[in-house]
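ligand=FE2/S2 (inorganic) cluster
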Amino acid sequence: MKISFYLNGKDTCVDVPADRKLVSVLREDLELTGTKEGCGAGECGACTILVDGHVRLSCLMTAAQAQGRRITTIEGLAENGKVHPVQEAFIENGAVQCGFCTPGMVLAAVDLLDRNPDPTREQIREGLSGNLCRCSGYVKIVDAVEAAAGKIGRGKSR
Ligand code: FES
Ligand code: FES
């Protein structure tokens, strides 16, 4: 089945079985390996992408469900060669260890800050509760999202 969608700012078309998992289409057919596949069952958040601006788990979506949607993967966050403020804050706050959960965490944080630009630490924890990290105690990740909220806020007030 031919499936067309808008991926990271570009019109994209793939010819794949309609029921192929979207995470496999992204990673294998389109070579966007920033999206990770962990549990494959909707439990770890590693495969998080944004669909029409909202967090979705690409391991639970079929290719057909991407038809006509606006999809953003971690590869699509940087703009004009500059990393997104959330990515910058993850780096600056040492919130990346093995990095497996990081793309999903970053995208979940982008969605969270879009909905709530000034979240409390509790709201950040809750907003990222669908994303598991095997390496950290989450403290630095929460620090990073808090710092990103400050950066984005400052950017808006300029
Ligand atoms: S791989 Fe999709 S939620 Fe774990
Ligand atoms: S940094 Fe390793 S799983 Fe989160």
